[in-house]
Every structure is written in C-alpha cells, then in structure tokens.
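Shape matters. As here.
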Amino acid sequence: MTSSYDDGFADASWLLLLGAPRRTAGMERRDLLAATAASFATQGRAVQASARDEVRVLVVGNPANTNCLIARQAAPEVPDDCWFAMLRLDHNRAASLLADHAAIPLDDVKNVTVWGNHSPTMVPDAWHASIERRLTSQVVTESWMVDTFVPAIQHRGAQLIEVSGASSAGSAAAALTDSIHDITRGTWAGGWTTAGVVSHGEYGIPEGLQFGFPVAFSGGRPTVVEGLEIGASQRRLLDLTVAELEDERDLATQLVT
C-alpha cells in the first residue's frame, strides 16, 4: 500500500484506475471531471515512468472515457492499444435486457455493442447483436429497440442513483472482471465485446477520442470490428455522443494545462 503513484505503478503489467468519486444525486459529469482531471494526468505520467512496457491500463473512474484520454495523453510513449475505458457495465446491462425481453439465457445473447461515451449519450446497439444465433431484428421489434431498449440502457445509471443515492458498485465490479477476462483471454471467433479504445477514424469517429466500439481481443490487443452498417438514426445518435466527448476533451484540456 502506498500513496505514491510511481511506487504503486512500478513494474506493473496491469493497472485498474478506479480513483474517482461515485456520482451522487445532483452531480454532473463536469463536476466529476473537475475533481479527477489533474489526478489522471498525474497517473498517466506515472504509467509512462514506472509501469512495464506491456502494461494494460483499464480506466473505471468516471468520466471513464475522458479520464482515460487524459491519462493516455500524459503518457505519449505508451502505445494507444494499451489503454481502455470501461464500457462493459453498459454492455452487460444491454445484453441482460435483451435476454430478459426474449426470455432466454444470457449466454444466448451475442455481439451487443455500446458505442461512444459511458454517459446518457451512449448508443446501445442491438441491431447487430444476435439472440440464439438469430439477428435481434428477427426476435424483437424495431419499435421496442428504439423506444424501450435504447433509452433504458442510456438512463439506467441515473435510475440507480435516484433509487440508491449513488452510482452502482457491485455490478461495476462484475463488469471490471468481465473486462479483464475479455482482454486477457480474448473474444470468441467472429465475436466481439464493448470497450472504450482509441479511435483511429473507424466509422467516421474523430481520431484520438477514447470511444466505445465493437472490439475483438486477441493476445491482449484490441481490434475494432469494422464493416457494420450504420443506419441514419444510429448515426445521429453517434454524432451526439461524439459531440459530448469532444466537449469533455476540450474541458479536460483547460483543466490540466
């Protein structure tokens, strides 16, 4: 146990960056960012100075996407594909809701994606998922996906805060272990999970953002799954989450310079 990032990160091959307050009622994402930006910049510098070359860094502390971006930018010598923002909590919620609605085991839901930011602008995607090896569109209606599924996942975190007074803890811990499993053990052939990885322009997303994508893992390395068809309504949602991430990035730049 130590209060020194450099000592704590020394020779580390895995870093789980949890250091952010739990969001409570009335707290905005900007409040979280103001409280965490400088700390994640310091942690990023310590990653570069002290961790192993093959380190994997998973950022959980919210706002996770932008905190990950801050830390990554502070460690320019650490490769982009070593950094991950956790969106697996949203992914798990989306898969669970699909399984519940279709009355099937959770393991029969595959290839869910949550695009973009870990925030109410996220874009949960059931259009490209499968239920019992069938496309979701063959099992559930388009109106249910648009009117029920998408807003339910987008606002699930806020619902929990309203009920319990603070953001989720146990389900976030479960998502953390799922994320580590995905990265270390890999995804199944032809399948993918959700992770917040660095955009290199895939699907027209601006380069450099830490963005939720459909991601396949092999050997601890992420590959964004490309070639999925993005409809007009989904593109409009993606534009909203991109705009929010760009706004957070610009605010973070002001806070750490």
